[in-house]
Amino acid sequence: MSTTNQRAFNFNAGPSALPLEVLQIAEKQLINFNNTGMSVMELSHRSKDFEQVHNEAIARLRQLYAVPDNYEVIFLQGGASLQFSMIPMNFLQSGEQADYILTGVWSEKALAEAKLFGAPVAVASTKDNHYKNIPSVHQINFNDAAAYVHLTSNNTIYGTQWKDFPTTIAPLIADMSSDILSKPIDVSKFALIYAGAQKNLGPSGVTVVIIRKDLLEKAHNNIPTTLKYSTFTENNSLYNTPPTFGIYMLGEVLKWVEKQGGLEKIATHNEAKAKLIYDAIDGSNGFYIGHAEKESRSLMNITFRLADEELEKQFLAEAKAAGFVGLNGHRSVGGCRASTYNAVPYETCKALADFMHAFQAKH
Ligand code: PMP
């Protein structure tokens, strides 16, 4: 806990830290939003007040990413995991190939869902290297006739991240759940981008999808209404009741990103934050061992181990006692992980780097 404002040193992987300023705005507006005498949670999703919140959030996202006009931006529910199913359900038919690039458990899960609908192929996998790296694009044999190519832009569990995306003939689809809004990207490289909100965008419960209209037109029709992308694009994401409070929070997070100076500034800030912790790893003479290969390192999730397993347990216990939250690695891989999403302050990362130096000096 930092003493000045009682905020934890929060390195949770998601749900994760939100900007303090955003939480303060939400607190102020919680019981009387915009002089309505109601909380945002109490507004009708068809009211003018909510409609403005909703449309402004979409407009802000479009502007921050310079989303071209031939794309729709929609809000869905069901988390990123539902996208694993919705994508093949909408775009993959029995016998049709889709290319999946496996860089971790989340891409494996996406592939498993696609197998229920068509004939997806893992065109690349770094599993044999314990998912320590992102594959080299030149070594991937894409099938140009595939229905689409699927990749995970940032691997939350292993701490790896794509730096440059492949240029593919088949429509490129990316799960950006854990690095959306962390840096500028060229949306026009992708046919579909999706992300659960609970890392860089806001609270859990909202999923953002950016989808190119020509892909949308290729979707199959024999799908349940609420699992069809067109249901949401044709109804401005208001076919049924959306997660209104989550969308409101997302809108406030987007305003905060604008106030920070936009995505270029956010990216520079994220680089500086991650450097503090990677430097503590690299300068430790093997006391701390990074999981990801250097060229594939994530600026969002920093994964490492201690050379000695007993000492690792002690590190995590002492870090917890010192007020650091969320430093345990994912249950599937163990070790340590610091998630340094947009809202994690520089000072919090500095505090962790200082703690790492001090712990090493002591042991
Ligand atoms: N993809 C990635 C990259 C993730 O990190 C996660 C969750 N941490 C998921 C998908 C699954 O997201 P959800 O829990 O929103 O279904």
Order of helices and strands: EHHEHEHEEEEEEEHHHHEEHEEH
Q: How many β-strand stretches?
A: 14
- Biggest sheet overview: 7 strands, mixed
Q: What is the residue-mean pLDDT, rounded to a whole number?
A: 97
First-to-last CA distance: 24 Å
Give the overall form: globular
- Gyration radius over CA: 21 Å
Highest CATH level, the class of the largest domain: Alpha Beta
Low-confidence runs (pLDDT<50, min 5 residues)? none
Would you identify the CATH architecture of the largest domain? 3-Layer(aba) Sandwich
Q: Give the CATH topology of the largest domain.
A: Aspartate Aminotransferase, domain 2
Strand content: 15-25%
**Ligands (ions, cofactors included):** 4'-deoxy-4'-aminopyridoxal-5'-phosphate
Describe the structure.
The chain folds into two domains: 24-259, Aspartate Aminotransferase, domain 2 (3-Layer(aba) Sandwich), CATH 3.40.640.10; 262-362, Aspartate Aminotransferase, domain 1 (Alpha-Beta Complex). It has ten helices and 14 strands. By secondary structure, it is an alpha/beta fold. 35% of the residues lie in helices and 15% in strands. It starts with 8 loop residues before the first strand and ends with a helix. Strand 6 and strand 7 form a beta hairpin. Helix 2 (48-64) packs across helix 7 (244-259) and helix 8 (263-282) runs parallel beside helix 10 (346-362). The chain binds 4'-deoxy-4'-aminopyridoxal-5'-phosphate.
